[in-house]
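Contributing new records

If you add data, match the layout below exactly. Sequence lines come first and carry their own label; structure lines follow with theirs. Keep one chain per record. Anything else will be rejected by the validation script.
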Amino acid sequence: MSAASPSRRWLVVGAAVLALLFGAWVARSLLQSGANRDASALMAVSLPDLQGVQQPLRQWQGKLVVVNFWATWCAPCREEMPMFVAAQKAHGAKGLQFVGIAVDEVAKVKQFAHEIGLNYPALIGGFGALELSRALGNSVMALPFTIIVGRDGQVMHTQLGPLNHNQLERLVEAGL
């Protein structure tokens, strides 16, 4: 595998910095607005995917969207993600969409995504993602943190810490 060119690295670093700044702006906006149950500010976020292409969360509006803030260095995150892969496979055709927002480096996320056969988008949020998660209810800024947005654009559930299988299935059934 060849090393990334300096211009490619600067492009990725620039995208990460922009994502950080945008995340902080969204977080501040949510905090000032009282962070109600409307997920429109979250759905307005756009973050780079593993190829550096900006992916707006609004592209999944109208689906049941499970947004999971995670990192490769977070053991509980790593443990729950295969369950998310299985749920995406089982319910994706019915309108379920998982989106992972990684608080991590692109290379580490790519490697872990390959290891587990990640079948849903992994976006790179950097440490700005922690600030965004705080505005969405993660007051201790710990991982994993999950937000489930219903088809109607309202936050159905937020959770600090891993979801268990039965809990996830109940939430997915209620949202679909």
